[in-house]
What we know:
- It is a single chain.
- The strands form 7 sheets. Strands 20, 21, 22, 23, 24, 25, 26 and 27 form an 8-stranded antiparallel β-sheet that branches.
- The protein contains 2 helices and 33 strands.
- The protein has helices at residues 85-93, 238-242, and strands at residues 21-23, 27-30, 38-45, 63-71, 74-81, 122-126, 129-133, 139-142, 149-153, 169-171, 176-181, 191-197, 203-210, 220-222, 226-231, 234-235, 249-250, 256-262, 270-274, 279-280, 285-289, 292-300, 324-331, 341-355, 366-371, 391-396, 402-406, 411-413, 417-420, 430-438, 443-450, 460-463, 474-478.
- It is mainly β and 489 residues long.
Amino acid sequence: MAHFPDNPGFTGLMRMVRLEADIHDLEVEGEIPVALDGAFYRVHPDPQFPPKYADDQFFNGDGMVSQFRFKDGKVDWRQRYAQTDKWKLERAAGKALFGAYRNPLTDDPSVAGRIRGTANTNVLVHAGKLLAMKEDSPCLIMDAETLATDGYTDFGGDLPISAFTAHPKIDTETGHFCGFGYALDGPLTKACEYFEIDAGGKVVRRVPFEVPHYTMLHDFGITADYAVFNVSPYMSSWEQLEKVEPHFKYDPALPFYLGVLRRDGTAPIRWFKAEPSFCGCHVMNAFQDGTKVHFDLPVSKNNSLFFFPDVHGHPFDREAGKTYLTRLTVDMAANSDDLTEMQQIGAMPGEFPRIDDRMAGKPYRHGWMCTYAFDKPYEGPPGPFVGVINSLTHFDLATGKETVWWAGPQCGIQEPAFIPRAPDAPEGDGYLVALVDNHITNYSELCIFEALKLDAGPIARAKLPVRLRQGLHGNWADASRFHVAEEAE
Length: 489
Ligand code: V55
Ligand code: FE
């Protein structure tokens, strides 16, 4: 009997979905662009079994991957669990064996040393495979068409690391997949590695480095020459893991750091420091301008993730936790390692920043985020993520213009993704897709917008007969990328 905890983490708007299904030809309102041939993939945490701890973190749920397959103006939907080693071991046992989020001290002895990953954070197609990622574990491989799980990979032995980021970047100049791993000498260690995997799936670069202290190294940015890492003042300790407290806590007394590493590994990483610190998590983009490195991300004065509590016990400060798009700039020619140049570049607060991914690492103009239109009414039930993530905003960084679409009083929005109109279309010329969840009717729909005309509303809505759980990240892949191109004979 699956008795899930009777608390707001698992009931109401946070109720599990646990549904693996196929729907051929979703109901559509409006017109799906006929030329689109590919799939939008996204993932949400969705515990297969009741957790061992009733207060378990949302981030600990098993990865549930959704695929929206676009072809000939139709959309098919498929949803499958990422069958991690954890998922298989627990399926065989009929119950949870792994304990609290990122806390191996809480696991059943029968799974000691097994990979704890949930593959619940991001899904992206590279080298003909769907990669399902969780930053504490190796990379899980799935079939881009069927969503069948292949298993964890170490890339033919070329990347034997214990952890693989969930926020890779594709450098469109080289076709390289750029990523990193952290805590590579074991839980809470400072050892990290930057790596690149070419378009054929071969590991071509490995550059070790260390963080100033163990932290949540969640996202990063690339530029033509550099990999750039943001360290917000999140920390952990064996003491808090022994007490089964949250894995991460926020210590405002720690500095904020920006680490700049040459992608070719020819110089040690350089850490720029800002005090007093601030908080940033997801990265919109980074780029170089001469010796300067610009790094754009939503930033708040204090902790923005309420479920990672303040280390000194201060209550969560909603106002200081509001994130605004901000440009951090460092000069690689400067002698000082102080990070002092910081400019707010967006007015709407929000998170889940995206770009036209072809612009990763380059000077760019267009960005999109989920935003918080606090002046709008909300009719849904209360819940941890609710009544807040209610709009999508396009940021034109050349003109400063912001264009907002509000999803209405009943709805929440999940992270968008950009789809170019054609492979060679100019930056921003294409579509934005985002899941819109109705908290009253309990249905989700995938909304498709003209990316530069959000205020016109969706041009099409592909409708699900269920509401998906709040998710994390996802990406579009053209059908030509579902398999590696055959070598010409
Ligand atoms: C994040 C998400 C995670 C995680 C660590 O958004 C950080 C940040 C979904 O899992 O494990
Ligand atoms: Fe993330």
